[in-house]
Amino acid sequence: MATTPTVLPLNADFTAYRILLPVKDKEFVVGIHNVEAGKTLCNANLDCCGNLLSLLTGFEHIVHERMKQSSDVTTFVEELKDVLEHILIAQPQVKLPLAEFYVRIYSEIEEIGWEHVAWIAPNFMSIHLRFFDEAKREHLVQIQLSSDYPEREPSCNADLPIAVEVQWRAGGRLKDILSQFEQAAEKFQDFWIVMEDIDKHVWVMEPEHPSRSNCFRRIALGGHCSLCITVEPLSPRVLPEYRFFGSDTSVDPLRQRMSSNMDCWRMERLVRENLEDLLDVTFPSPQDSNRDDVSSECIICYSYRLLDGKEGASERGSVPDRVCDNGSCGRPFHTSCLAEWLRSLPTTRQSFDVLFGSCPHCSHPIVVKCSIS
């Protein structure tokens, strides 16, 4: 490859040029048009090849400024070469694996079987392996390899309720990783039985799309009330952490039943069955429930999740965390929505950071603590 630029005029008027520009073991093709003799290149147009265009993204203003200040094409070519050298020096250098790396990965995949490969990157440095547990659930193990694998431990991840700490030794193999995740998955069989039973038989308000790593469920109880539980993955049939959400007049009886019947909890039963027995209720299900009765959207903004710009994901963001204490109402609100609503009313009173007003739905007295503007 040549080390100096080649400038080729495309016409007899010398108003257009084709340039072959070698920079740091790379060669770029550049076209320059509308060159005016005896003038700077301020009115000239630059035409770049695809890879050069991508490389100059974000630096266009620098190139245009250098072009305006250049008195002729040769000067600009040297300026452009200088810009490209600085860009290429600043780029992180990717260390590509040796041929032995690819031979080893291919051999290890052959060892575990290609049926276990769900996806593999073109450079073989990222691999998703699949396996099925005893209940025929499919699991994916995401593996990120380094160029000096297997001396350096790979980064591994799977959708499990407790992260697996991979035991790695130099010279380890992909089958060792897969085996460790298979063994870890066996520990959570009863946990997934418990969670799948909940997801199948009750109206789960959160998370909207449960994954196998989610230990939390918010269960609709009806009457704008809900029960939040967090199940212990390694002891899924013990009484989970729980919290009721709803008006005090609606949830106080439920709290009392839970406390009074705690001795009736049976470890051989599923969490859902125990909760229904202790609370003396049958949880609503999506098939036989009125959506209005279990609705949890804020009645002010008509949304469930209130994204604040920092969250950005559908599974995140603040949810209604305040309800009307009127037992015949019990409508939910986002605290921020309720505070904004009350501030807009002339009848609202404020004492320090507490607002005193009326429920937007039933006009029952309501109090909300908010930040002082």
Summarize this entry quickly.
By secondary structure, the chain is an alpha+beta fold. 29% of the residues lie in helices and 22% in strands.
Describe the structure.
The protein is an alpha+beta fold and 373 residues long. It has helices at residues 50-55, 60-69, 73-90, 99-112, 174-186, 189-201, 248-260, 271-279, 291-294, 335-343; strands at 6-9, 17-23, 26-33, 45-48, 117-120, 126-132, 138-144, 155-158, 204-206, 216-222, 225-230, 241-245, 322-323, 332-333, 349-351, 354-358, 365-369. It has four domains: 6-90; 100-187, Ubiquitin Conjugating Enzyme (Roll), CATH 3.10.110; 194-294, Roll (Ubiquitin Conjugating Enzyme); 323-369, 2-Layer Sandwich (Herpes Virus-1), CATH 3.30.40. It contains ten helices and 17 strands. The termini are far apart. Mean pLDDT is 87; it is low at 309-315. It comes from Physcomitrium patens. Residues 3-85 form the Fanconi anemia complex subunit FancL WD-repeat containing domain. InterPro entries: Fancl, FANCL_C, FANCL_d2, FANCL_d3, FANCL_d3_sf, FancL_WD-rpt_cont_dom, UBQ-conjugating_enzyme/RWD, Znf_RING/FYVE/PHD. This is RING-type domain-containing protein.
